[in-house]
Automatic annotation (TrEMBL):
Residues the entry annotates as binding ATP: 6-10, 127-135
Family to which this protein belongs: Belongs to the 5-formyltetrahydrofolate cyclo-ligase family.
Keyword presence, Transit peptide: no
Key word Metal-binding present: yes
Lineage: Bacteria, Pseudomonadati, Pseudomonadota, Alphaproteobacteria, Rhodobacterales
Protein EC: 6.3.3.2
Protein name: 5-formyltetrahydrofolate cyclo-ligase
Enzyme class: ligase
Amino acid sequence: MNAEIKSELRKRAFAARKVAHAAGQGDATAHLLAEVLRQPAGIVAAYMAIRTEIDPMPAMHTLSQQGHRICVPVIVAEGQPLEFHEWTPDSVMIAGPFGAKIPENAEVLQPDTVIVPLVAFDLAGNRLGYGGGFYDRTLQRLRAVKPVRAIGYAYAAQQLPLTPEPTDEVLDMIVTERGSLAPQQITG
């Protein structure tokens, strides 16, 4: 997919996300995300929402109460995979790159599950991000070591037809305000 097409898709997805966010469509999704992750306690990477991203914070609190260790992404350098620093409800947060908050002092963790923010997705589990390739590089690195589940978290309005590239890492599941789509539902 060329840069012009990606730029146009991002514009469409950002506009749709802005409308869904303003309408409060993500407010009731935290329970869906937490339910998808109802499993033995593990390490879950989430993210600190910026702009009109759907906010995983309520689910982060629920998962923390259920015994999961939670971490959030930290950009180490351009072109490098993300690191994940432990987050707790009591973490002191400071400004990080691109406006996302990061824990001031935290242990680096290797997640079992990564909740992935996105700009757009399709029903085949493809995602369109902001263009830096951070999550694709990160998921590739993590999955080279152990099975890591990637869950896209977005508004249903962000669904668009996408054409994947060879470096794109596919999502295992997508959670929106309309519910969750499991891998067999995505690919089947």
